[in-house]
Amino acid sequence: MAQNNDIAKPVRRYTRVDFAALRAFLNGVQLDLLVDRYYSEDDMLDRGWESARDVHSWLEVMSQDMADRALKTYPTIAGILADSRRSGRWSKPVIDFLTVNAEKDLSRPFPTDSISVWFKPRLADALKGVGLASLADLKRYIESAGLGWWRPIPRVGAGKARVIEHWLTQNSQFIGALTLEASLPAVTNQVTVGMDTGLPVPLERIGGITPTLNGSQGRNRNTSFCLISARNDLEAIQAYLYRFRGREKTLRSYRKELERFLLWCVLERRVAMSSVLTDECEAYKNFIADIPADWCGKNPQIPRLSQRWRPFAGQLQPESQRYAIQAIRTFFEWLVDVRYLLGNPWKTVADPSTIHREMPMQIEKALPQQLWEELANQGGLLDRVCDGEIFNAIRRPKTSSLPAQFRLARAAILLIGFTGIRREEAARATRNKLKPVPGRNLWQLTVVGKRNKERTVFFPPRVIDALKAHWLDRGHDFSDPHQELALIAPIVIAPTRSACAKHEVEGDDILSGRGFAPDSLGRLVKSSLLRLADDHEAPISPEERHLLRSVAPHALRHTFATVSTAKQMPPDVLQQLLGHASLTTTSIYVHAQRQRSLDEVAKLYKG
């Protein structure tokens, strides 16, 4: 028989949170309050704790460990410790004696430690919300984003950020030295881009371009009457982007591509944008296929006004390269149409080659019909989580609002999944656009989609029941059909000025009922389904857990479309419900035919 050479006794590791909890425990703080204050759900799950009783056992053993440690060094205090344990009364000097020195020795952090081990639950949740799982993740994030690293993180202000930085610095011997560099000042610090400019800067920081490179004398400029007042290339870009005012998503997409190309022309190629010929266009196509490291940022969360900002977040996928070339070509076509340029040098440049995908919209991300029904049907997974029947997902003693948060997520998931509306449309949907369909067991909702086109979608009372439960949590009256309140709105807000200004009503405990930003609604859906997928008590297979971990709101839109197609909904009806401009786009969902083809081929070779 092989010998077991692992003879070392496992050593309990106590964290700063444990020592703070032990102090409260020895001071007689009620156990439920102690758990609520010091231990998050993630922390309890990581340690295998199922209830407050497990925390009580942990702290009992910890107090004995501290007493044994103290007795080894100071055996004369045995009587004092025995009296304290017998009476259950621990004086402050005794508690300090037990914990202060031990805390210094035993509460050493490691880079791989979870955020929730070292920071209070509310702060840990905020940091995890932006993808920071470990102390190493947090350190890397701060170093790459600079002094303003905390701005995108809810519930973290400048003061708390400095405290976190101080804590990391204090523990640098265990997790490495924190290196912080100053961030660039704000947008008022504009620069003239040209030959001597060191680093690329975003459009809003470009005050001008060196005269020889600004395009005012570009070799492709049209000298006859121009239909825009732009004097140079920067102003031409600004004129083009102005066309997309009010369409923020489209505006950001075009700004990103034109900004990159302008900076490449001036800083890399040393040529005015209005002087580029087909040779330069081909060179740019090669450039975005292999982007130099100094043009790529280390962190996509870096603010645009930071000195660490770069035009690219990393290497582009072939599809992204193709989109970039098409966006720039379209821009140049417009420049020719308005007679700013004589010709379009991109006209003869081929798009980067990409794989012609069988399903270009990645509708394979749609949930299988069976999993969707298990999730969304009456009494399904979402209902059981909201009712707190069986899942650890709901057992979070520190947050009394969590059941309401799940009811909020359920309402959002069902609204998108039963209608196929986009994330942006769901975020902007309001109560006054919702009404029952006469003579049918259906409701209808009018939304404004792409190209500012209105359309009406229909859904069953199942969704209304979820919305009513969500509105009850909000304290709003769902029965009033004339309200312009958002169908889906936060019930808990971050204590930031912008959030308070948007969602709080002065002198009222009830929030304003204004909706989510689309990105925030997306994060809500993803985080809720991720929590469900990670719940070991949820009765779903490993494959289904994997699918739920990758679900985004758009996957729910795909789910609606694929389920509808499988149930023989006519393509033209589905096109109208999804808001597609072309029936060709909708026909992609006839992917359901692929399954039927597989079934028929299987019959062919059966036996």
UniProtKB/TrEMBL annotation:
It holds the Pfam family DUF3701. GO terms for molecular function: DNA binding. Residues 231-336 form the Core-binding (CB) domain. SUPFAM superfamilies: DNA breaking-rejoining enzymes (SSF56349). GO terms for biological process: DNA integration; DNA recombination. Residues 380-603 form the Tyr recombinase domain. It comes from the Bacteria. Keywords: DNA integration, DNA recombination, DNA-binding. Belongs to the 'phage' integrase family. This is Tyrosine recombinase XerD. It comes from Novimethylophilus kurashikiensis.
